[in-house]
Task: inverse folding
């Protein structure tokens, strides 16, 4: 008996027949780029998020990059990013020509600490990218107040937070624009790469519509030097099916998370995620902290329990950023040493994971 970290075939099983039929339908239609399926998904996902517009793009990194491009953020500009995030948040800033300026997490949590943002603002700062890390919304009201005070754009990296709510409002409607990824393992995942941008800014949406499609509104007429990064029809059609299951899947994840929180509360040596009362996370990942993280992961592996680390090397210590001048980021480096992601997917039975962690606590 072993527990996988994520079992996508189990997640897909209930809608596998519908997905097969959709594949046949799209194949038969023979229209694969920017057709009805993408338009349909965009309308449905915009409504789901509570945003006026949704634009399907090639992946989550491109979604972030196109937002920055459409905001005309580039060389000479600075963008505040969480120090503790997946590197794509930083890479989007770098691709735009701007400089990422890292800010560390809140004391007990994983998301960017609004109290530390203001000290990182300079005359070159143009935007803040808030990441709703592990599916937990960042403190957007606090960030919005800072952004407004300094005339900055506020961008959501919602790649891990499809369906999550902050004070009742969905991620994807909380900033000036939001980037989503539909990488297969995300809460709303395609069967390949995919991404989207949501925004209620019509001018921004129009510019992104050009940027994703060669800078073209009318075929063979190119108003700006754009890119080719589009969600394709087949992925959009499959995502429309999965979107209908998203709230139910997130509720199942919440049930697993609540079981972990309840059953692991008394296990010594584990720091469990602390969720502020104003957010409703969607538990993309269930991340605990332990000062004996590597030994714990090995012991769990020996008992057939798969775990992962999100993320083992902070962005500022990656080769990609060897030339970036950064402030000391000791708390981020500690997080990278201590975080451990437990198995999490809709429908997972967490009992074997809980049993193993309890057994390991008594036999260190
Ligand atoms: C997955 C992810 C991305 C990038 O999405 P891709 O579709 O893989 O390009 C960006 N930010 C965060 C926080 C992510 O988890």
Result:
């Amino acid at each position: 008996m072993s527990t996988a970290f994520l079992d996508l075939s189990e997640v897909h099983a209930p809608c596998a027949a519908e997905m097969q039929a959709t594949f046949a339908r799209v194949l038969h239609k023979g229209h694969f780029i920017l057709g009805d399926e993408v338009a349909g998904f965009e309308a449905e996902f915009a409504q789901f998020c509570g945003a006026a517009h949704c634009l399907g793009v090639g992946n989550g990194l491109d979604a972030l990059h196109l937002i920055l491009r459409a905001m005309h953020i580039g060389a000479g500009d600075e963008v505040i990013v969480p120090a503790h995030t997946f590197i794509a948040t930083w890479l989007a800033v770098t691709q735009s020509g701007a400089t990422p300026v890292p800010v560390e997490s809140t004391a007990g949590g994983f998301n960017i600490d609004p109290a530390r943002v203001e000290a990182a603002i300079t005359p070159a700062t143009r935007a803040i990218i808030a990441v709703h890390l592990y599916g937990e919304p960042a403190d957007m009201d606090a960030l919005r107040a800072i952004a407004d005070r300094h005339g900055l754009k506020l961008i959501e990296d919602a790649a891990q937070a499809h369906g999550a709510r902050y004070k009742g409002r969905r991620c994807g409607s909380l900033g000036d624009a939001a980037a989503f990824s539909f990488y297969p393992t995300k809460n709303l995942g395609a069967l390949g790469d995919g991404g989207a941008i949501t925004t209620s800014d019509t001018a921004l949406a129009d510019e992104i519509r050009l940027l994703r499609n060669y800078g073209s509104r009318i075929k063979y007429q190119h108003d700006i030097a754009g890119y080719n990064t589009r969600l394709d029809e087949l992925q959009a059609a499959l995502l429309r099916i999965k979107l209908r299951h998203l709230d139910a899947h997130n509720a199942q994840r919440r049930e697993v998370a609540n079981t972990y929180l309840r059953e692991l509360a008394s296990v010594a040596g584990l720091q469990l995620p602390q969720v502020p009362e104003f957010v409703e996370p969607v538990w993309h990942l269930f991340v605990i902290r332990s000062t004996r993280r590597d030994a714990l992961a090995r012991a769990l592996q020996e008992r057939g329990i798969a775990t992962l680390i999100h993320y083992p090397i902070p962005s500022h210590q990656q080769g990609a950023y060897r030339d970036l001048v950064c402030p000391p980021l000791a708390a981020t480096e500690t997080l990278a040493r201590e975080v451990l992601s437990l198995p999490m997917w809709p429908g997972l039975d967490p009992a074997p994971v809980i049993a193993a962690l309890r057994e390991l606590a008594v036999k260190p």
